[in-house]
Protein: Phosphoglycolate phosphatase
Amino acid sequence: MLPGIRAAIIDLDGTMIHTAPDFHVAVNRMRDELGLPPLDIETITHFVGKGTENLIRRVLAVDFDEGGADTHFAQALASYLKHYLAINGDFSSIYPGVREGLDALRGKGLRLACVTNKPVDFAVPLLEKSGLRHYFEIVYGGDSLPRKKPDPLPLLQVCEDFGLPPAQVVAIGDSSNDAQAARAAGCRVLNVPYGYNHGESIHGVDSDGIVPTLLDAARLIAA
Ligand SMILES: O=C(O)COP(=O)(O)O
Ligand SMILES: [Mg+2]
Structure:
């Protein structure tokens, strides 16, 4: 059990929504525009988690050295953002247990925030389209604050917004980013094993527990 918890900070990509197919389509439409061959979904999924700029750099590094990637970066980023915005949510799906888990967390009286490295202008419409926006008092994207996960800043900002000490807040996410940010902030952390952990096993991550679904996370948490 995790006792003494008053709020949960929940990650988006790979935790609530399986967005890898959206990333796959948008990245390959960008690559097509640049005259580059498509990448498979697994390769692209391993690049997800550290924000949009990092994703584009990793995607360009498949074809170019550092100088070449720099040359193409601005065009690639603009193309990717245009294509992602056009399809945001069309190919993605909510993971099992997410709605039930969010209902259970709310039922226990926890306050909820979503902290994602996705740009906030992608995250909010995706949450709205998925019917999840209403659960969250706060949504911070990767570009909402000066630093993103694995930096603790977005988590510390939520703690301040809620007026809670970090020890009373749990972060729930699919990757080492979420765990590192939580540890650095002094929050508790639970991880789900089904998302995108940069192609690595979630079992190597410093976490307070690995739970099969958000509903299982909710069952472990007590106010
Ligand atoms: O867009 C990303 O890089 C991943 O976003 P996440 O923080 O919701 O997993
Ligand atoms: Mg994630």
Q: What stands out?
A: The chain is about 45% helix and 10% strand. The pocket of 2-phosphoglycolic acid (ligand 1) is lined by residues 11-14, 48-51, 116-118, 149 (CB under 6 Å). Residues 10 and 46 are 20 Å apart (CA to CA).
